[in-house]
Amino acid sequence: MKKIDHGIVSVTILCIFLGTIIGIQFKTVKKQATAYDIQRVSELSIKLNSATSENESLLERIKEKDKKIAEYESYMAEESKEVKTILDESSNLKMLAGLTAVSGRGISVAINDSPKAGQQNEGISTDAFLVHAEDILSILNELNVAGAEAVCINGQRIISTSAVRCAGSVVNINDVKIAAPFVITAIGDPDILEASLMFPGGVVDALKPWGIEIIIKKMELVEIPAFEQQFEFKEAKPSKAEGL
Amino acid sequence: MLIPMVGLLTGIVIGILCPFVFPASYSTYVAIGILACADSVLGGVRSNLFKQFTLSVFVSGFFGNAILAMLLIFLGQHLNIQLSVAAVVVFGSRLFQNFADIRRFWLNKGKKEDNMLM
Asked: Where are the domains of chain A?
């Protein structure tokens, strides 16, 4: 009789102990899970915010400096003729590089995901009804072939190093995230540009069957902004063999 | 057998009500401690039912198992082996084994001969 008593008592004591640790551990795990997440998210969002505002203030400063440089340049141009020719050359080169905002005749191409994308489609992946980076690239290519002089996509100027890349549900252009609807504007002969997209078997024909909405408008005046990001050559140097 | 269950519930209430928590880095150790404890509890219940209970075996089993399990985890963390898995598997299977014995005991309460076999 005494032995059984011993047993029950010790098991009970252990049970109380077990319950206590289970209770504390339960709280510990619960606390950790929420505390960690919130801490991490708020930490990251604070970092992101400060980085964004720093970025903006730096961009402001760049614009100010650019203005000052332009002032100096115009002042110098009045002084001497050689400087004026050099500056003209420089502004030509800047235009070629996409560093100045330009305007002129051109077209705008608006493309948007197919309305079928949201619905259930038997046997066809929803992907087929969305605008992809590849579609934008092929339009861009056709426009360049047709002699577009300046192109921008949703305000992002396309320059020689611009990349159009799929990044999940959005498209990265010049490292800026851009989502549908996409508006591609190009400066060039409107008729030729339009024809380059509309010809039979061309880009528009390839996209239309999927229900992707493409609206091409010929315009008398298209405004295309300058390339905003900074770019610098780290590896490339003028080739010596070229030597003038 | 009702008293240990009441004890368990009381313990859980105490644990949830008491103000402090374990440090996060000891989480694995505590988890293994819980397993060792649960194993000992079921073992104790089983031996009580079969009238084989000895306090020394019970106490040494509890502390020995818990300490060995924690040593395994400690070693595992320093050798980068998940040795805690070994402890979890062994304690887990023993939990089920003990539970099976207890279950059989209750189910076959009327038939004496079955109890002896298990």
From this structure: 1-68, 101-224
- Comparing A33-47, A50-64, B97-111, the range with the smallest average pLDDT is A33-47
Helix residue ranges per DSSP H, B1-118: 2-17, 27-49, 55-79, 84-107, 112-117
pLDDT band at B11 (very low <50, low <70, confident <90, very high): confident
Chains A, B: CB contacts within 8 A come to 116
Report ipTM for this prediction.
Answer: 0.78
Q: Which residues of chain B have a CB within 8 Å of the CB of A5?
A: none
**Cβ contact (<8 Å) for B62 and A31?**
no
Sheet holding A156-157, edge to edge: A156-157, A150-153, A182-187, A102-112, A213-224
Chain B contact set for A26 (CB, 8 A): 15-16
Query: Looking at the domain A101-224, which fold is it?
Result: Alpha-Beta Plaits (3.30.70)
CB contact under 8 A, A31 and B15: no
Answer whether residue B118 shows pLDDT above 50. no
With contact defined as beta carbons under 8 Å apart, do A160 and A154 qualify? no
